[in-house]
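User: two proteins, same treatment. go.

Assistant:
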Amino acid sequence: MQVLLLPGWQNSGPDHWQSHWEQHFGGVRVEQHDWMQPLRGDWIARLEDVLLSQSGPSVLVAHSLGCLLVAAWAAHSRNTHLVCAAMLVAPGDAEREELQPVLKSWSPIVLQPLPFKSLLLGSHNDPYCSLARAKMFADAWGSLWHDYGHAGHINAESNLGNWPEGRALLQSLL
């Protein structure tokens, strides 16, 4: 089973837990054409291409805008059977007014159940998504909810390193 890492807007830098997982555990980062001006349709097409190139089922490990990508892709793809599970970490809220100028193609956010099991982690002090919105996304997508406390955007600034707790949560999902 292949782990596909789906970073959010602006990609995940070298200190981000996704980069650590890619380096130490062999996950495959889904590289996008444009990390700075993300277009939903382009990102969906790229995820579809990568999934079709895999030799077996995949697990999606998404962060921030990557979580919205999972929901948008699942709503449009005929190949959702290629995904066995998704771990959705700190979804970004593309409908926030301050994010609209860059993320306008991401609204409205797809809010329908995912056709595979999923776990969504949200933080009380995430600057890109309120806890209430994160819980609403979990409910809409049919995801198991995990309150990750006060961990900001659960990214490099959260100082998670290899994030063993995140790996354990992924294993419990699988």
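Protein 2:
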Amino acid sequence: MSPPKEQIILGIDPGTTIMGYGVIRVVGKQQELLEMGALHLSKYKDHAVKLKRIFDRVVALIETHHPDHLAVEAPFFGKNVQSMLKLGRAQGVALAAALSRDVPIAEYAPRRVKQSITGSGAASKEQVAAMVARTLKIPEASMPKELDATDGVAVALCHAFQLATPRMQTGHSGWKAFIADNPDRVR
């Protein structure tokens, strides 16, 4: 039996004030934190400059860690249309950075990330951070102040958990997965 393949996953929690990110290495069922942090953007008043900083940081993370996947949290639908538009642009720039380096992309809804990490889609950022620390055995003293950083790691972990499921390995989901799992029930 061959040893499990190593996967590097870059997780992004997009934002135009703070962008959280985390890079993990996965070998078999073991996950290891390589880097986490937050890009602070509030000092830039020009929205275009913020987008360029996001692009540059994501490219730098890709060039440093050579991820096999980029996982990004999808914007949630709030009441403020302008905020949603800005968040969508931030996510789009992170995706463009990954695409420019041929890194495959996965997108997850915030509730799905929380559910995957804590077991509850309504978990708080603090609960997510606590489970990230527990899962990756990060000492409390090493945890960042910014919960956006742990949110970025949570997105990467969510993707790692999805990759570990047999359905993701076969590329089947939804009805395709049902048919693949139950060929005798399809006429």
